[in-house]
Fold this protein.
Amino acid sequence: MSSNLLDIVANVMEVQVSQIDDESGPETIENWDSFRGLILFEELESKFNVKFTLNELLNIKKIKDIKNILSVRGASLNE
Amino acid sequence: MQSQVEPNLSYFIAKARSIDGRSFQKKIKVAILSSFTINGLEEALRVKCAESDITCATYLCGYGQYNQDILDQSSKLYEFSPDITFMIIDTRSVLSTLFYTPYTIPANDRRTYIDKRVADFVNLVKTFKNRTGSKLVLTNCSIPTYSPYGICEVRTEYGLKEMVYDFNARLSDAFRSDPQVFLFDFNSFVAKYGEINVLDYRQFLVGDIKVSLSYIPHLAEELMGYVKANLGVNRKCIVLDLDNTLWGGIIGEDGFDRIDLSLKPPGMAFMEFQRVLLALYQRGVILAINSRNNEDEALRAIRDHPFMVLREEHFATMKINWSDKISNMKEIAQELNIGLDSIVYFDDDPINRELMSKAIPQIKTIDLPDDPSLYASTLMQINDFNTLVMTNEDRKRGEMYREEHKRTELKRSSSNLEDFLKQLEIRVTMKKANNFTIPRIAQLTLKTNQFNLTTRRYQEEDVETLAQDHTKLIGCAQTQDKFGDNGITGVYIVNKNHEDKEWFIDTFLLSCRVMGRGIEDAMMGYILSKAKEEGVIKVKAEFIPTKKNKPCEQLLPNFGFKKEGEQWVYTYKVPIKQTNHVELNED
């Protein structure tokens, strides 16, 4: 599996990478319910070696939010 | 300890969708009841079943609904009619607020509380059993690692941890000999992976998830032990390489004195591995050797090396030669009369492993790590040796295979088959189904594939019901000969129809270990004579062909049964075939 953020999102949500952009989130991706959201965060944590806080988890609404958190933590996004 | 590598949960979720609609011969329905959110377990179980060629349908009870599901006679749970139900409970829900503040009430009240909770669960299980024949796998509770009393916790009478210990112990006692109910040691599961890892506080707080999502596949893997055992899908034999597998180094090059096998590392890693193998041998797993070596050098190490844990007597057969390992493997299966799909293979050489898994994919070839210190824990991760019950036959299996060796030698030295059979001095004792024989009868119906006319599977509870039914005749055959006791190896189930003076043979099977010695004939002769004594004029039977039961294809025609449509019928026009070399008794 690639360590690219979008690949992981695509894989967990079972959508094409091309269907995802910065604005994508539970509102736009049908499969993205709270359960898949948790799976996504867990896989991102192990991939990027970071831990999200509870508040971060609760406030992630779109891909852009994840990118912001990851870049604050210094994770390399391979973009 | 090395932990098994499992794919991420997202793999199972996606894969579950792609396998839906695939159909295998083996089928199972699994229900999951839980006191917390356990999404993803269904998918992980379905995918793992598909990997073992099992079609699995699942049912997950609604959040917090397990009580209602069990109590309500017309619930979705019973409508689903599961074969196995997993009921996964957690310490927080059992203890409620006492989990956090156990010392709000005195020790006596804590005891009363646990008494009550145990009674609640025992009653709940009783209700469940009244409403369904499903097996129930109930988890025990994980014992909290934290106590507000800190180091004084252990001095506290019936403290928090003791409450949970006691709860677990009493659940074990309540269901120890209940064939329908199994206790899954969830506390061990949590201990194996660590409470800190298994409970992710964020997932718990956000979604009431008490087994974190990355551990769901591991939990599924452990629960698969019950699924496979329930279907009788288990492996029976471990085939081992020698050099760098049972000992370090190469006996042919390093020599007897220089191989690594000792009470110190690195040789100790191999002793550790052998000790785990020995324990599996004692529970009934067959061991065998498949090694490219000079036989005399290897045998000397096995017989005389001071630190060998496993000796010649522990191996049902040893193929130590320069032939290729694949032919050796096929010979092993043939000699032990077991299917290739019941073999687990250990070899340190990745090339040998690759060749084996290509040539015989049914064999479970273990991806052995390069580091011998991980051999023992790799072996302990294998979840394929489970049976729902352990019978005397299981525990004595190793001994039986050794006796089998002696029989093979006698066969070799005998001039013909008849002579050999006569010399064996076979004794068959026909026994009724009773408390002692029922577990083994069920086990044989669940796992016998080759000499099995109808391959009908019966769980222990089914056999108990059949045994009480006066219109059925159900019994088994214990076989002995001059080399030893084979235990119970044959089973028959007959439906009696006295009005029409007809019997119907529902099940007739013989363990593959004793095939071809006339025991099947003695058993069939016994049934036909018994029927005659009761005035029966027609015995009907069936042969339902499967991929594996060709060995019993000729049994019915050999006895003079005639084919009528789908059935075979015997009308006593030809005399009952005699089996003179077998001494038959009734118990």
User: Anything to note?
Assistant: The radius of gyration of chain A is 11 Å. DSSP finds four helices and no strands in chain A. Chain A has a mean pLDDT of 89. Residues 10 and 23 of chain A are 14 Å apart (CA to CA).
